[in-house]
Every structure is written in C-alpha cells, then in structure tokens.
Amino acid sequence: MALPEMGCARAMNRAVNTEADIAGIAAAYAYGISKARAFADGNKRTAFVTAVTFLRLNGYSFRPDPVEGVRMMEGLASGRVDEAGFAKWLAAGLGPI
Question: pTM of the entire structure?
C-alpha cells in the first residue's frame, strides 16, 4: 500500500468499524495523512484540505481562523495535539453548508 493510501486507510477503517462521528472521521483523515508523510512537502496542507473536503462532501462547513488552523495542524503533525483533540476542535467549528 502506498503512503497516501495508508494515511486514508485509518479514516476509512474508523468509518466502517467504529461509532465515530463526522468530526472523528475527518480528524482521522488529517491525522493519518499528516503522519504518513507521503509527500516531500505539503503534508499538513494536504491533511487539512482532505479533512475539510470530507466535511464539505458530507454537508458540513468548517471555516476556522487561519492562524488557529495552522496552529492546530502543526500541533497534530508534531504530536502536541492528539487525534481526539483535533476532532473536538473540528466539531466545535462545524456548521451547515
């Protein structure tokens, strides 16, 4: 399995095998992609865009403060923010499209 697919497999597994909510699945995408480090550059950006796109495709809007978004993604990638904390942050900012 290639690195990008490994990052996404975490979220797909969570969606099928757990009671995860939409923010938890989006957080799993962000976590998996940021930790897989599949690309030479842009892993955190790719992880964030994937999570937000997943939310949008499922009927949710998420528009955080840009500085807060950078802080949270850097925290997730470095381990200062765990996947559950990232999911809570996402859930707090969800709205309808």
Answer: 0.84
